[in-house]
Every structure is written in C-alpha cells, then in structure tokens.
Design goal:
- The radius of gyration is 28 Å and the shape is elongated.
- The protein contains 25 helices and 14 strands.
- The strands form 4 sheets. A 6-stranded mixed beta sheet has the order 10-11-12-7-13-14, with helices on both faces. A 4-stranded antiparallel beta sheet has the order 6-5-8-9, with helices on one face. It has a two-stranded antiparallel ribbon with strand order 1-4.
- The N terminus is likely disordered.
- α3 crosses α12, α9 packs across α11 and α18 crosses α20.
- The protein is α/β, with parallel strands linked by helices.
- It starts with a helix and ends with a helix.
- It binds adenosine-5'-diphosphate and magnesium ion.
- Adenosine-5'-diphosphate binds next to β6 and α16.
Amino acid sequence: MTAGKTQGAGVPTSGAYNRRANLALAAVLFIALPISTVQAMPKLLDGGQWLILDQAAAFALAAMSLNLLLGYTGQISLGHAGLLGVGAFASGVVTSRAELPMIVGLVVAVIASALVALIIGIPALRLRGLYLAIATVAFGIAMQYSVFRSDWLSAGSAGIALPRRLWGEHYLTTDATDNATFLVICLLLLLAAWIVDSNVLNTRVGRAFRAIRENEPVAQSFGINVTRYKLLAFVLSGAMAGLAGALYGHTIGFVNNESFTLEQSLLLVTMVIVGGMGHRLAVIIAAATFVIFPFVLPGLKGYELVVGAAILMLTVAQHPEGIADLLTARHRPLATDDEDDDAAMPELPNLPLPSGMVTQRPGTGTVLEVQDVTVRFGGLVAVDGASLRVPAGKIIGLIGPNGAGKSTLFNAVSGLVRVDRGVIRYRGQEIQGMRCDQRARLGIARSFQQVGLAKDLSMRENFLLAQHQLASYGDVSALLMLPKAWRTEQLFRERADEAVSSLGLSDLADMPVRNLSGGQQRLVEIGCLLVTAPDLVMLDEPSAGMAPAAAESLAERLRDLRDKLGRTVLLIEHNVPLVLDTCDYVYVLDAGQIIAEGPPEEITSQQQVIDAYFGAAVTA
Ligand code: ADP
Ligand code: MG
C-alpha cells in the first residue's frame, strides 16, 4: 500500500453511516418532543436556558445549510450570516409590520433567502477557492453595513422586532413554557430540513453536488450540468439559511445589522469544519456545542472566538475529518495490503453488464468525425488542424508522444475545451457548440488519463453517479423522495450492485475508490462509462498505472467492448502491444498534427512515426 492510499483509509462513505445517524436523530426527537411538551418539562430549565437551546437549534440548521454548500458541493461561503440575516429581516417585516403569523414569516424568509442565494451563486459559477471566498465576504459585509442598515429595513441600527405571533393576538412569550414550545417548533423544522438534506444525499442531486466538489470535468462527463447544480446548491443552502436566520431572530425577538456579522459567518464555517465537512449529524453536534458551551462555562464568555479558533486549528491539524471521525471510526474496515496490489489480480474480471445495458448493434457509417480542429491555449497550439474519422463498431487508436495533444483532442470532442476552429460531428450532427453534459447525453462517454471517478465516493456511489443522465425524476421529486424518485433510485441501486458484483469487487463496494488499486480503478471507470450504454467510448490511456499482466487482459476486455457489446471505441494508448492487439486503424498525432494514419502494423513500421513517437518514447 502506498502512502497516498493510506490517507483517509477505508472510511466507508454514506450508506451505513447515514442510516444509523438518521435513526439516532429520529429516536432523539421522538423521545425529546413529547417530554418537552409536557408541563413539567419547562420547569427543568428557566426561560433563558430554553432560549439558549432555541438558539442552538437555529444554529444547527444554519450549520447544516453551510454544510450542504461547503461540505457536499465544495463551494465556500464566508458570508453565510448575510443569508441568515435576509431570512430574519424578511420574517421581521412579515410578523411585525404586516402583522402576519410567524409561519408566514418563515415561509417568506425561506423564499427570500433562496432568491438572494441564487444571485450570489452566479459569481460562484466563475470564481473558485480564494476568489469565491472574497466575493462571499463582500456579500456578507455589504448586507451587514448597507442593506441591513437601510431605512426601510431597520432605520439604521434600530433594527426590527420579530414577534412570535402564532395567530391573531396569540403569541409565544419568553417564559419557560413558551420557549420550550418554541424549541419543539425549531426541532420539528430541523427534522424536516434533515429529511430534505438526507433525500438530497440519496438522490442524483447530492451525487451531482459531491461530484462537483471532487472534480468538475469528471462530473460534466457523467452528464451533470455543473452550472445548474451549483446554483441549486446555493438555492437549497440559502433556503435553509433563511429558515435558520428567521428562527434565530424569533428566538431573540429582535435583530439589527449587528446580529449578522462576519464573525458569525466565520463561526459557521468553523462549526462545519470542526464537525466534519459533509457529515450532517457531526456538524449539528458541533453547532449546538459552540452555542451552548459559552453559557455552560461562563468563564469562557468573551473568549469564544479564541477558543473557537484554537479548536479549529487543532481540528485541521489533528483531525481533518472533525467530530465525524469519532462517529465513523468504528465502522472502518481494515484495508489489507494485497487488495491494493495489482499483481495480486493480474486477470481483470469481465466488464460489468448491468441489466438494461443491452448489447447493441454498432450500426453503420461514421460515429465521430473530427474535421480540421484547432485548439489553442494562449500562444500554444495544442491541436493544430487535426482530422480523424471513427467508423461504427471499430476500435480506432490515437497514438503520439507526450504533449502531442491527444488528451486535448479528447477534451475538444467531449466538450471540456472550446475548439478555435474546425467541426466535430457525432452521427452527422455538429456538436462543437454543445456543453459537455449535453454531449454525454448524446452517447459520448470518456475516461480520463488520471482516472475519471469521484475518488472520495465509494465504488457503489460512482456507479450510481454514472447513471445520472438516466434519472428522469425532477428536483422536487428528489427533495421529497416522491415515489418516482424512490423507484428510480431503487433501480439504480440494483444496477450498481449488479455492476459491482460482476466485477467481483463486492467486498470493496463501500470503500472510497481512491483505496482501490490502479487496475481496479480503471475497470470501475470503464464499467461506469458503460452503464449508460453509450455509443462511443473514448479511453485515455486505460493501461496507465496497470501491472503488465493486467494490461494484457485489458486488450481482451477492449475487444469485448467492440465484439460483445457493440461499442465504438476511440483509444489513446502508449502501450504499443495493446494498440497492435486491439486497434483496427490508427492515427498518429505529433505536435498537434496528424502525421500518419493506417492499419496498426503498417503504422508502427513507418519511419516518420518511429522518429516522432518511438524516438521520443525511448528518450523519454
Ligand atoms: P498528450 O495527451 O498528447 O500527452 P495534451 O493534450 O495533454 O498531450 O497536451 C498538449 C499540450 O497542451 C501540452 O503542451 C500541454 O502542456 C498543453 N495543455 C494541455 N491542457 C492545457 C490547458 N488546460 N492549459 C494550457 N495548456 C494545456
Ligand atoms: Mg494525455
């Protein structure tokens, strides 16, 4: 086992952990709810203490909202308090100015924050990492110092009241009983958000989020519209943040611009990181702890930020997985060395053939036609007027020295880079203007030189992810897990299990893919490409990282792809025996130009090719 593979070894993703966490929370709520509603319960704590628990619940929801954005989707927001504020002010306007019940305020808060989040999601489509962080800080500060101070919302720092109006002139006051009742409301809403969040994770929506976090090009090649799902993540996170902000506002009864500060935004990020990015229950525990502790240990008062920062640094340095590490540690299977070694598995298993993935006839004619395509990166011409043709039912090889532009040509065909000139036709249709995910839907599947899987997800989850474009249920159906989404997901799961077991890797199904051997990862990748029954399969150096024996049996699998499954294959390969063994026709690319083409035996004996390719390969 290599050092790289040991990192974060063997943590099973979602699956078992989620189910247990769900059950745990449901159990806690079912016990807590009836108890807290009986008259005796409020007397256990005084009004102020109940209020702290109300705040803890509101912050748990706020942290869950950031967890969806940061933990699942990998989009940083350092201005999340701004979204909480939008919710609180919206509910304030509804309940204190329009004198409507709190329930209306909460609904308006959710809608208002979701809309604002959609707007701040737009820059996130172009900005990444530090730049996105700065943009969201700017959003939070703009809200704090200008919008929330506007005359209309709060008349400067005067703020706005958030009465807990139930209906008419019935209010929840701030005595112990009413604060306890409000806690019940908060917990019920937290439970509702928990269920939606869990549905997100268990459907194509959450898989799209997590694939985007890990690797956007890979996500796109699986047919995920990255723009759409990033915006959806912002909207969902904004909706939850709005609800959290409104609950927080109704807890303390009054907010002004100082209620939603940059410190609060940073505290939310701390909660998510200390809890463990992407682990809902752990994030909730962290959030509740951060709210409650300063009150339990009054000596801490005033030093919360120092203590919080210390805990954050300790977490990042010592337990990057946060509290979630403790919750999942027990379920960690021990990875053994031989599982990681390709030498132990020289024979590659058969390609998975999940049901529904029918063997098809390749048809006739030309599947792919690349005509005079040029791709430039600034001054560098990576592909220079290249043309090639891939007829149906054949394996076409694309060879050439490193840096020749082979991968770039793949990217041009699959839509990850724009072509500067030239035409790309798929089954006669011009596709060079389409988005990557649209081309994937047409039936173009591709692998990546560095294995195109979401490597932190398990094998099973990758097979689910690969079926993204087959899911016909809508987002609402997913969030509420309506029957259509449920049935589709069941079917996907069956197919994923079938694929995993046909690879003979059932034992490793819930292991993050990065813990598999190079050969296993390749096979899972090719298997994932096949579940959508694509017409054209483009493979970028599939034998890279495989043991020689495994590469030999790869040739057989590639021929299966053509002869048994009826696919058309475009293959980039450095392994010359493999090319000779499988390809029907070969193109040679050098410095972006096609310098030779022909049947493989002929090509490998041409002096020009030997000079360009084999000379370079030998010296390299
Ligand atoms: P090959 O796959 O044949 O080894 P590539 O297509 O990866 O070659 O690269 C061709 C050339 O384009 C190389 O010089 C590489 O550095 C350059 N290149 C590839 N991708 C990019 C990019 N995204 N930005 C800038 N240059 C790139
Ligand atoms: Mg390459």
